[in-house]
Amino acid sequence: MEHILNVWLLGTFFILVTAQERHGCVLSELGPNIEATEYRTIFRPGQELALSCKLGYTSILGPRTIVCTDDGEWTETKFKCIAKRCPNPDPLSNGDLYYEDTVYQSTINYTCHEGYTLSGPKNAKCQADGTWSTTVPECKPVSCGLAPIPKFGLISFNKKISGNATYFGTHGTYKCLPPYVLFGNAHAECTASGNWTKTPECRVVTCPPPENIFNGYMSSNDQRRYNFMETVQYGCNGDYMLQGSFQISCQKNGDWSEKPACKAPCRIDIGRGRILYKEKKLWIGDLDPNKVFHNDIVSVYCLDKVRNCGYAVSTQCIDGNLKIPECFKEPSGIEYTFHSGSLPSEIEQC
């Protein structure tokens, strides 16, 4: 009888425990990046479970604890875990950085501009503690060494040079010692490839003795070779007018610059009439001597027969030649002497 009672009591306890477990809470999925402080299959009603965030994440909202209720459900919570954020990365001097975000496990990729090489890691990762895995690397300029200098030449740099090293972005200017002349590019540059641009040459340049010009003279008649950039001046005889530069120079190609020319004055080939010269109306007989200079402009007067009025027509002296316009009709001696008031230059102007 005692044995039967013990079996009955044991069966009753098993039923109670089973019923209690049936109404417990099961540990299911907690949510993205959330973890529990303890792991069991079943939690009894009234038991609490503390929540926390996985490594690299931080909590927002709450509560941080959920409780197993009598109906086998967990109490509600708004507890969430979001990724920790690293600070905005520092800029990379002479380079660029590429990234999409600054949260945990985000990556920054570093590259340098042309002419610079990366010193340090190529990338950095946002770590669980909210810091970047490495500091910003450095973009160092490419080294070129000292620039080659041509024989009989020199170079001046745009910045102070220390030791035997120069770097990308360094510029220089070549010059030649007199009487040598620079052939090639005077501008030098340390390039992204680590080499200097092509070195020019210094050569001697001379020009043959210059020739005189017709109706002119030179400042020097030395029959010798002239050095680069040496000059000679020209002038014209008498009333001849110099056209072009009064000075020529020995050029880089060994030739002289273009010589000027002496242009002859002109005679106004009319015997009777009135002209307009240098904004003055003059009778041709009052122009003494009868001469205008090269490039001077003279106007003669023509008659508009339809409207019976006079008008001035210009002509220009070109190296001794002054063409009289066809419309000009030279008056007779009588007209010119006794009826000058009826000439085209004296009547009403059109």
Automatic annotation (TrEMBL):
<feature type="domain" description="Sushi">
    <location>
        <begin position="142"/>
        <end position="204"/>
    </location>
</feature>
<dbReference type="InterPro" id="IPR000436">
    <property type="entry name" value="Sushi_SCR_CCP_dom"/>
</dbReference>
<dbReference type="GO" id="GO:0016020">
    <property type="term" value="C:membrane"/>
</dbReference>
<dbReference type="InterPro" id="IPR050350">
    <property type="entry name" value="Compl-Cell_Adhes-Reg"/>
</dbReference>
<dbReference type="InterPro" id="IPR035976">
    <property type="entry name" value="Sushi/SCR/CCP_sf"/>
</dbReference>
<keyword id="KW-0677">Repeat</keyword>
<dbReference type="InterPro" id="IPR015104">
    <property type="entry name" value="Sushi_2"/>
</dbReference>
<keyword id="KW-0964">Secreted</keyword>
<feature type="domain" description="Sushi">
    <location>
        <begin position="205"/>
        <end position="264"/>
    </location>
</feature>
<keyword id="KW-0358">Heparin-binding</keyword>
<protein>
    <recommendedName>
        <fullName>Beta-2-glycoprotein 1</fullName>
    </recommendedName>
</protein>
<dbReference type="Pfam" id="PF09014">
    <property type="entry name" value="Sushi_2"/>
</dbReference>
<comment type="function">
    <text>Binds to various kinds of negatively charged substances such as heparin, phospholipids, and dextran sulfate. May prevent activation of the intrinsic blood coagulation cascade by binding to phospholipids on the surface of damaged cells.</text>
</comment>
<feature type="signal peptide">
    <location>
        <begin position="1"/>
        <end position="19"/>
    </location>
</feature>
<feature type="disulfide bond">
    <location>
        <begin position="25"/>
        <end position="68"/>
    </location>
</feature>
<keyword id="KW-0768">Sushi</keyword>
<keyword id="KW-0325">Glycoprotein</keyword>
<keyword id="KW-0472">Membrane</keyword>
<keyword id="KW-1015">Disulfide bond</keyword>
<dbReference type="Pfam" id="PF00084">
    <property type="entry name" value="Sushi"/>
</dbReference>
<feature type="disulfide bond">
    <location>
        <begin position="112"/>
        <end position="139"/>
    </location>
</feature>
<feature type="disulfide bond">
    <location>
        <begin position="207"/>
        <end position="250"/>
    </location>
</feature>
<feature type="domain" description="Sushi">
    <location>
        <begin position="84"/>
        <end position="141"/>
    </location>
</feature>
<dbReference type="GO" id="GO:0005576">
    <property type="term" value="C:extracellular region"/>
</dbReference>
<feature type="domain" description="Sushi">
    <location>
        <begin position="23"/>
        <end position="83"/>
    </location>
</feature>
<dbReference type="GO" id="GO:0008201">
    <property type="term" value="F:heparin binding"/>
</dbReference>
<keyword id="KW-0732">Signal</keyword>
